[in-house]
Amino acid sequence: MKRQLEPPSQTTLVRPGGPGKPENAGETGLRSSSSASSRIRNALFPSSLSIRVRLTLWYAFFFLVLLVAMGTLVLIQVRRHLVDNADHGLKEELEELFEEIQLTRDQQEMVTRLRQRFSAHSHFHFQVLDEDLHVLFNSRFLANLQLPEPRQRPAEMRGGQFENIYLDELGKFRLLSLSVRDASATPMLLRAVSPQHALEREFRSHVWIFATLGPVALIAALIAGYLVAGHLLSPIKRINETAKLISAERPRERLPVENEDDELGELSTTLNNTFERLENSLDAMKRFTSNAAHELRSPLAVLRTEIEIALRKPRPTEEYRRVLDVVLAEAKRLGDLVDQLLALSRHDAGVQEMLTDEVPVGALLSDVTCRFLVVAQQKGVRLTSSSIPNCFLLGQDIWISQLFFNLIDNAIKFTPEGGDVLVSAHIRRKDECAIRASQGSPAMEARPGHRASQGSPAMEARPIHRASQGSPAMEARPIIEIVVADTGIGIPADQLPMVFDRFFRGDKSRGHHRGTGLGLAICKSIVKAHGGTIEATSELGAGAAFTVRLPLLDVAPSEEFVLEARPAVVLSDNGESVDSRHRAPLAAPPVSPPVGPPAGPPVNPPVSPSASPPVSPPAVRRHGFTIVELLVTIGIIGVLTALLLPAVQAAREAVRRVACQDHLRQLGLAVQNYQSSLSVYPPGGIFTGHTSWSVHGRLLPYLEQQNAFQRVHLDLDWHDPVNLATGVQKMRIEVFRCPSDPRSDELYEDDDEGFVATVNYGFNFGTWFVFDPRDDSCGDGCFHVNNYFGPEAIADGASNTLCAAEVKTFTPYFRNTANPGPQIPPNAAYLANFAGGAQFKLGPGRNENGGHTEWCDSPAHETGFTTVFRPNERVAYTHSDGVTYDIDFNSRYEGTSWTEPTYAAITARSFHPGLVNTSWMDGSVRTTAETIDLRVWRAISTRDGGEVCHSP
Fold first, then answer.
1. Domain 356-582: which CATH number of 3.40.800.20, 3.10.310.10, 3.30.565.10, 3.40.50.1980
2. pTM of the entire structure?
3. Mind listing the pLDDT tens digit for each residue in 80-104?
């Protein structure tokens, strides 16, 4: 039994900093400093001020900083220039003094000549010292003054030395000392001083000029900044005024766009496009409401009429039966309409089932085609299916079947007797599909008048409707292109863009075909939900073609899209089903060329180069920038960057942290549901080998991963060939990945298992000791090999015991054959020394079986963690390659035939700064600071240690 850290009645946390000091004191300090800076910023530039005033203040602030910096630099240069001039004057005077000394023969003559010439100089004053520093000559000004003693004797001095001195109350002077030799080569020291009063006065005058002009310039900058800010913000004011006019009564109002090339022009254009989409949505909603009311009212009116007529007087039984048949038919029609409306609303609201099933597209398309053979034969339409490849996509088979059903039913419905309907499917690459999409449907190319050549009048006259554009899924995967083409009545060019609208049923020539007008709208919703596109091409009187492109499941790069093809299903002329491989390809009946001029104006007629000269695009008025505007722009960019960048980064990190916590919460709830179903918590593996399935693999059905769990054979090792053949080990389970880990989407490559997906959340294996295969004894955590714990085993309380925590993928680790013993390692150096002869598992590309965390494997170093060290603590090891790594340690494979116990130091690590997210046995999720007391961290990992501690 461990020492009681806290009395049971108090649930507190003590950190190393001392009693009563909160664990998150560092975070509190950061929040305090951040809030203090926010208060200072709000005090200087209150948010209650207008943007124009705040921009002006920010501009003035930066201008003031720039002005002070420039003024300081200029004044420093001015002072340096003044001092240099003074020093140059001293040097010239001493040179004249030395020339005079060179003309004398002895000291007496030298002193006499110097007194005559230099004794009463007005600005410079001189002193001559012999080699023993005795004064030989003083000018009159220095007769009663004492200059500082020289620092060196004349013979020791090299060159001239400048220094500043103060002479009693006379103020500051500049002193130059120079060592020379007279005509007899005797060393002597020449000294000259000059007062600094004039220099100081001149420097103060420059300071006064800057102090006077600075506020004037600042006030001028404030005024200019205010005017420029108003000029720059005036388009926003006009946008605001125009936006106020846009309402349900005036939906066609649009914002003015003065210059499409600047940011405000782009904003106005974007808002105008948004308003236009909203207007179109409102119009579509009105049309939908009107059409829905009409469609619902029609069967209700029929029901009411038939029932009222039947009730007017007694009628024969056959008449009542006829009325009931009509009522039943209309009720069925009404029910179908409601079901279709419900399906559309579910797609619009995003409530459709999760697209997690592998749907066999070829099998579904072939099955739906076969179901329509009899219908086509009864109508006299020849239904043909080309070779359909076997391929799979991620989605819902019921919706894909509905898509094919609607398209083929629509084609047969609008094809007259003797016509043809062709169903074809091909695997395309992304770039090939893009080229084909721009050229038109292959099926349509086979018919006269639907040529794919550049500039074809038929192609120019045939508008194309695209239901969706640029789906991310379609940009990264191979694509199946499905074409349903017919030789029916076709669709007029002006109605083609509306074929996917709800309740659209075309002109009167198509109106005799009974339907709700929702089939193609449902097709569009299904295709969009599966990340694909749908388009329609048609020519009036020559038929129509609907092309669907859907992204398939990933194909390995080594594969060349070699897929097994299904035999085509064809209805022969005598009504027998035959294999299309023994049949000629579909050919439409010959079409006679039109006689006479076409009816109506041509669509997109070709233009002759000589018909009219080219028209230049209208010139866009360019706005130049003044210096003030440029400075304001730079200031605005700097301010916005300084204000928004930290906020954006913090927001992104907050979103990633919340997503990570949500994943941990799902894992915790899955553990609870597992325990509720089986009365025990999931084991960390079964003693059938070190490759037994992990806790993660056993939780799949409780994480809405039934599709993955159906591939799992728990009675076999996870890397048994039977399990590997299913490919489940390569599935990236989203709930197992932390969005902040940059490598969470990478697959680990193993020579035996191939590619394996990783995990970012490890389960609690306890402090240090993990498993002993001799007696199935396990550590003090909650998940272990060959051990099933129930709630009664969590003696410390579910709310005080860890369930799972974050770990980093691809963390290098040691594994060796020695037994480290039950003592918990005191530090990383102990582990590094102990593991000197161990296998160092670094990672892919460095050696076999590198550092990794495989979600399907059960050892602690794969899917667990221990509390040897605190969260995010760096366990450094310098490898022989000279690189220092942050490592983990594992002494054994858990659950193997080894007869020694297993010990592991697997550290909980997170990419969220300063903390790790943790899940607890009661299903809650909390953030645990990396500075948590190590005693508390170990205490909350034990299931029955007797501690009453929890992380804040």
1. 3.30.565.10
2. 0.39
3. 888 888 888 888 888 888 888 887 7
